[in-house]
Structures are given as C-alpha cells and as structure tokens.
Amino acid sequence: MPPAFQITARDSASCARAGVVTTAHGPVMTPVFMPVGTRGTVKSLTPHELRDHGAQIILGNTYHLYLQPGHELIARRGGLHHFMAWDGPILTDSGGFQVFSLVYGGIADEIKGRRPQHAERLTDMVRVTEDAVIFKSYLDGSRHVFTPERSIQVQHGIGADIMVCFDELPPFRAGYDYTAQSMERTHRWAARCLAAHHERPRATLPNRDQLLFGIVHGGVFPALRQASAEHISSMGFDGICIGGSLGADKPQMYDVVAMTVPHLPENLARHLLGVGDVDDLFEGVARGIDMFDCVSPTRLGRHGTALVRDPARRWKLNVSNAALREDDGPLQSDCPCYTCRTFSRAYIHYLYRAKELLAIRLLSLHNVAFLLNLMAEVRQALAEGRFADCYAAWLGKPLG
Amino acid sequence: MPPAFQITARDSASCARAGVVTTAHGPVMTPVFMPVGTRGTVKSLTPHELRDHGAQIILGNTYHLYLQPGHELIARRGGLHHFMAWDGPILTDSGGFQVFSLVYGGIADEIKGRRPQHAERLTDMVRVTEDAVIFKSYLDGSRHVFTPERSIQVQHGIGADIMVCFDELPPFRAGYDYTAQSMERTHRWAARCLAAHHERPRATLPNRDQLLFGIVHGGVFPALRQASAEHISSMGFDGICIGGSLGADKPQMYDVVAMTVPHLPENLARHLLGVGDVDDLFEGVARGIDMFDCVSPTRLGRHGTALVRDPARRWKLNVSNAALREDDGPLQSDCPCYTCRTFSRAYIHYLYRAKELLAIRLLSLHNVAFLLNLMAEVRQALAEGRFADCYAAWLGKPLG
C-alpha cells in the first residue's frame, strides 16, 4: 500500500489543504464529507444513487452493526461492502461514541452542554472500567461488553477500509481531572487497539488492507488536546480522528480544532467526527481538517428540511412552509441532483405534507448531494488557490 | 386521434387477446398491469424507476388528489404528468369507489363479503342521492359533494389520459333490488359524465385529449351484468371498466367477469378495477380483460412481502422469515429488477427487520417490476400463440 495520505494543494491564507487518502477500495479526494450509513444503509438511499451523486466514502456505525445483524453475519456475507452492495471505501467508527451518546440522550445535547434529563440512567445503561465498557443494548436491553480488542475484532468482521480506535467519551461537564484521566485511558486503549489489529491474521478477514485511525481526546483543554495530539500521532496510526467533547457551541468547537491541529503531523489525514453543518465544514477545512461525517443530511431530510445555498437561512429550508405550495422551482437552483433536476418545491411540499415516503427519499438525496457538491467545490477552489473566495461566497463573510 | 384500442393477437383456447390502447401520452400495450400512485406517487418509487422497470401507465386516485393537494392546484402546475414528473399515460378513477370503500372500512372486506364492523358509520360518513354523493374527508372530516359533473371537472384538472365515469358502489350484501336500482343510477350518471366531458372547452385543460371509460355494474347478477354491459357499451365511451361488487371470493369474481365480457364490444379496451393477484391477472386475461390496476405490489412491499414465482406459496415470500437470514440469493432468481440484480435476501431480511426505509423501497420496486414483467411475458406469449403454456407455467395447472 502507498502512504495512506498525500497532500496535493495548500491554501495560503489558512490551514486548509487538499489531498488523497488511499484505501483498499480506491482513493478518497479530500477535503471530503462522508454520508453516514448507520446500519449499513444511508437511510432511504441506494448505494448507486450515492455513487451517482458523488459520494466517495461512507461511514458505518460499529455499535449498531454489532447489535444487528452482527459482525459475524456480515463477515460470512463477505463483509459490509458486499452485504450492502457499496464497492467504494467505508469507514467504521469504534462503537465507543455510540455506546455513550445513546445513553447520554443524544450527543448533540452533550456537545451543546445541556444536562442530560436522566443522568442517573447512565450508570444503569453503561459502566466503564479500565478494561472495558459494559452496556445494555438499545434494542432489547441485553448486556454487552466492549473492550478495545473486541471493537477491533468487530471492525475486522465488518471489513471497513478505515477503522477507528475504541475510546471513552467523557461527558462535557466532566471537568479537567476526569477528562485527563479519561484521555489517559483512551491512550492506553489506543495501544491495545493497535496491538489487536496487528496480531490478527489478515488472511481470515473480508478486507485484508484495513487502515486504523487513532483518536485524539482532551475535551476543551488546550494542554490536554496538545498532549493527546502528540501522543496519538507518535503511535503509528494511518490517520487521526478528533473526538471527545468538542465544547458547548460552534466557536468552542472551532477553538478545539485550532488547539489540536498544530500538534498533528502533516502527513496524516485528519477526521473531525460527527460534524456536517455548512459553516462547520468550512471552518473545519480552514483549520486543517480533511474528513467529515454527519447524519444531518438524511436526518434533516426525514424531518422535512432541505439544504439551500443561503447563509441568511442557516442553509435550511422547511419544505412544509406554505410559501412553497405553488413554487414551481427546484429546491435549489442550479443543483444538479436528481431531485432538483426532476421535481418542484410544490410537489415536494405536497409529498411531505401527505407523509409520502418519496418525500424523504427526495429530500435525503438532495441534502446528501448538496454537501457532496459543496465539498467538490471546496476541493476545486483549493486546487485553484481560491479557497478564501469559496469560503466568502458560501458563508457571506470573509475568511479569517 | 386513432381508435383508442386495436387488437393485435388473440388466443385460440380462451378469450385472451393482446392489443394497443392509444393515449395522448403514448401507446399502452395490453394486457397491462398499471401500478397505483394513489396520491400522485407510486409509494416510495420514482417515476424514472417505474419507467426503467417497464411501467407503461400508472393510476392516480381522483378522491385522494381532490382532497390533497386539490385538482385546481394540480391544473395550475400543468396537470398531474408535469406535477409528478411522469410523462407516460395516466388513468384516474372517478373517486366514487374511494368515497365508498374508505367508509366501508376497506373494499377487500366488502368484496369478500365480510360485514363492515361499523355499518352504522356509513350514513354518517357518506350519503347518496339521485344527484350526488355527500361525504366527509378522511383527512379532516370536512364535508364534500361529488356529482358526476364534479368528478369529470376534477379529472379534467388532474389531466389523466384516461378518465372513468363516476359511479355508486353498492355494498356486496345489497341484494338484487338495491343493486339494480344502483346500477340504473350509475347508468344515468354515466350519461351526465359524458355530457360534462364533451361540454367542457378542451383548450382550458392541461390535457386536451382525455379518453373517458364507462363503468359496468350489476353486482353478481348475470341479468344485471348483461344489461349494464350492453347499456354502457352503447353510449360511446372510449373503453369499459368492470366495477361494482365482484363477489365474495375469487371464483365468484371470475364468474362476474365471464358473465360480463361476452356482452362487451370487441373494439373497446376492458379494465378490471382494483385486481392484481398473480392468479387473478391470468384468470382475467383468459376471460378477455385487457387492463388491471392494484395497490398490492407496493402495499405488500411495505408489509415485508416479496412476490416470487411459486404458486405453492401463493406467489408470496415473507422477507422477515428467519430462513432468509443467511440467504445470499436474490428475492427471485433471474428477476431483472434493480433489487434482485443488486441485493441478497439476507440484506433485505436485515433491512426490513431493522425497519429501514430502504427495505420498503427495494421490496416495492421488486414487486412492481415482478407484475410488469409477468404481463410482458403474457403479451409475448399471446403474440406467439403460447398463452396456455404461459398460464400453465405460472399457475401450475392447465388453462380452462
């Protein structure tokens, strides 16, 4: 395998860069947004639609796939690529994030610093030891134990091209001391993940050329972020994820990225986990992030929101709004997606109000395509030295 | 316009025939099955998928489209073809069937002779006079009045290529006297529909070349079916629907068809409303039916059933069956649909159990394609003088 990441362009006015991640199922041009197929399907869409609309790589969630249908069944089917009929690159998270975030009542609440409604349920649903996380299934309440070794074993069975180390997700309100202890444990778990990955005979796996990304923690504390970035970067991973609590709001998240990236090596790709708002993509790229994933385009679609090129609306259009009732235009003018090439706002407004499944399909497809096209524009701008112009055109304000 | 229907082949051993219905949006090769897009969308599927899988014509429901989004809005959007992006032929029913069947608690109960659970609700939800049907909306309880003229006005606004006359649907248990009176009223309404259609200036309509089909009633009574067939056939319609109560079971439905068809002219296409089981399609064709429609392929898909070529299973496979858990084969071997070309039974079993929307899409697409391909086989067999062989191969028993 060639080096996992090669840089092809840099922006002169920011930390932004373009590059290529090389995987067993083909190259991924960065910066990249990856649609999330939580349970082996990007909700309501086919793999061919994703490919036709520019998806290069998708993400699967280890936690969900482990619980149903199970990594062993997926491995017997030839791995997730074959099972779901997606022949491009796949990344799986470690399962750690999901184990905790589903218990916390949605990571959005945590990241945004809102106190969980039932914090006492945490101890009932999940328990952390030095060795493992013990949790109950969201499906049937059954008891499960995840260790770093188990996470890698599960990810080996799924067969994604990029795996991620198993980590603990401390609550945002944990404070410096707990965050530091949790970070140290995540570092020890990172070493166990690496060992588990390299000990496994590759010939038994559905995908023999899996990459393994480390994950940087440290919460909102600059000293911890620096320590974690330097530690994880020294361990020999194929790339780096920025995980853990990212702060209470968007400015704090941007600060966390800015305090982490300078301590990462240039020659490893950097993935900011679970981020996909339009402004966050630009701010992440400007601070040196290469890879993003988020459920937002399909989740927004299921809830009747279309992404549009309008910063004044925060890039969101509520399709059930009565103003669309007789609007014969597309969701977004000049959008090349199937939805916008084919259907009017009036039709989609009607379908959504009538609770027709096709509304969800058409909105999900548009929203995914919208972010994929946005990132293609960003890559093109970086290649042509115009990133600041692209940023200003999208966000309606200058870069920096 | 050329004659609306031309016969291209006849079977020597039955009343089956092949032909072409000519419409403003192109020809329809018969015998044909038309997928039902109740509310301007064949549930979960795009018009391009339908076309790619062989759909020639689809059906829209006047009752639903009238209530939401309304025929006037559809007309302002350029008609249903443009609104839903389907440029092939469309047929709309008259609304009568829906007004009654939704009140009766599902027409399947009625056709099968099961007594409605709450027959007293009928008078509350719908009332019939010589002039009109007064009914309450299933959406919001609002009061509406449908007359034959109103039904045609609504169907003019929708702009389908084939319209159907407004009729009263008497309950199956109505008996001879009520069925005869109701049939006479339906005949008077047929004359009013014809007049309303011909009086309207075509230049104001989204589709200037709409055909109008009459509808034959008479319940299960041979004398009434003959009288209705002869009366409706003499009125100058572009084609004939067989409607009304079709009996308590499949044999009685076949009898109703057999007692009606001989009294219809050869040169008009015949549509058996709301029928789409595999055996019913063959038995209908054998008795001289040219056109069929049914919600079954998409409804079965939403409920986890795949159509398969197996009379012993009544052509149905329950995809949530545990036997499919590790089945790497397609839903139906040799099926050319996207679902069967791409995905395994194991994946669809998993998706359906996980309640993923993609399961509904993939099953709906397969089931629709399955019936479209079946009818293409029937047409080919008729053209080649092999209908009896085709019947025997599908139903596992000889024709006749």
Automatic annotation (TrEMBL), chains A, B:
List of catalytic residues: 93, 293
Class in the EC hierarchy, top level: transferase
Ranges for region RNA binding: 274-280, 298-302
Pathway: tRNA modification; tRNA-queuosine biosynthesis
Stored SUPFAM superfamilies: tRNA-guanine transglycosylase (SSF51713)
Binding annotation for substrate: 93-97, 167, 244
Chain positions recorded as Zn(2+) binding sites: 335, 337, 340, 366
UniProt function note: Catalyzes the base-exchange of a guanine (G) residue with the queuine precursor 7-aminomethyl-7-deazaguanine (PreQ1) at position 34 (anticodon wobble position) in tRNAs with GU(N) anticodons (tRNA-Asp, -Asn, -His and -Tyr). Catalysis occurs through a double-displacement mechanism. The nucleophile active site attacks the C1' of nucleotide 34 to detach the guanine base from the RNA, forming a covalent enzyme-RNA intermediate. The proton acceptor active site deprotonates the incoming PreQ1, allowing a nucleophilic attack on the C1' of the ribose to form the product.
Protein name: Queuine tRNA-ribosyltransferase
Gene source species: Candidatus Viridilinea halotolerans
Lineage: Bacteria, Bacillati, Chloroflexota, Chloroflexia, Chloroflexales
Gene: tgt
